[in-house]
Amino acid sequence: MRGRREPRPGDIRELSPGPLGEPRLLAETGAYLVVYKPPLMHSVPLKKKGAPSPGEGSPGAAAREISLLDWCAGLFPEVRDLQNRGQGEGGILHRLDYDTRGLVLFARTQEVLEELLRQQEEGLFFKEYEALSAEKAPGPSLPGFPPPPAEFSPGIFGEPPWGFGEGEEPRFIESAFRPYGPGRQAVRPLAWCPGAVLRRGEYALDRGKPYRTEIRAWEKAGQYRRFILGITRGFRHQIRCHLSWIGFPLLNDRRYGGPVTPGPCFLALRARGFSFQDPLSRTRREYRLLPEEEQPDFRRQVEGAGS
Q1: pTM given for the model
Q2: Within a domain: residue 4?
Q3: CB atoms inside a 10 Å sphere around CB 283
Q4: Cα torsion for 24, 251, 165, 233, to the nearest 10°?
Q5: 274 and 193: one domain?
Q6: How far apart are CA 266 and CA 254, in angstroms?
Q7: How far is CA 131 from CA 30, 42, 50, 180, in A?
């Protein structure tokens, strides 16, 4: 199904993804496409054969034979032929992890792709995520993490429910990253500054550039916490690693110490929206997924967290 309505200047388009397990085109313009990526699907084709360890979200789940880029190129062949910074990535603007679901943006022309990549580099492409975490003691429970930042010391998310007061600035988790674990399939934060000496065998990824996760809001409900998070530039596993670092690993995130819910489950991380400047009209566009509370898959996960 193709959504043809052009968003009005300054509009917030609220979108329904439909069934959680299937990709779907949610909005289409002459410049870009907004697509829903389901969990257990690669954003772009793998460079090497074989799936990642399934599920980090779902035990025994097989990788899909096609990626989101493959699926999108079946409808819009031009998105595969664009020259991106990563080989074979076509017109995709940002990749989601295999287990993460949510909105992905595709450019349809080379000119639009280059403009949107520029916006990302300059911090003008804002992405918002929703995450669920079970109750944990503050601080990481896995090896390889440095002590959490002082501003996330024990009690900051404790009782009474802590939140953002009117006019209060959001909180940030910021670090560079280093590879970690077998096959270097995970990452760990590097709480360091330029000139710091790393341990033997350690090296910083992406030349030690810092990546920031903004905690915009959170709420406590029963046995889980819901975080609303924002990023501009994203790194592999950034949100998953940062939340685990401060003691709140995501539900069903085995790689970063998250508790597993019973029955069918998926990683409790959703790319729920983004905003950017339209390369053609130069107006600000914002797209956001509708809340999931009424969807059965979401309810099962929340109920499982409390059992």
Answers
A1: 0.82
A2: no
A3: 12
A4: -60
A5: no
A6: 11
A7: 32, 19, 27, 23
Is there a single domain that holds both residue 110 and residue 51?
A: yes
9-18, 49-58, 150-159, 164-173: which has the minimum mean pLDDT? Answer: 49-58
HSE of 134, CA atoms in CB hemisphere, 13 A: 19
pLDDT digits (tens, 9 = 90+) for 172-227: 999 999 999 888 899 999 875 544 545 555 677 887 888 999 999 888 767 788 89
Question: Residue 73's domain is classified under what CATH number?
Answer: 3.30.2350.10
Look up residue 188 and give its amino acid. R
- Give the max Cα distance, the chain: 55
212 found inside a domain? yes
274 and 96 in contact (C-beta within 8 Å)? no
Do 58 and 122 lie in a common domain? yes
**Angstrom distance (rounded) from CA 16 to CA 7:** 15
Q: What are 271's two structure tokens?
A: 């790319």
Domain containing 172: what range?
A: 131-222+236-256
Does residue 262 lie in a domain region? no
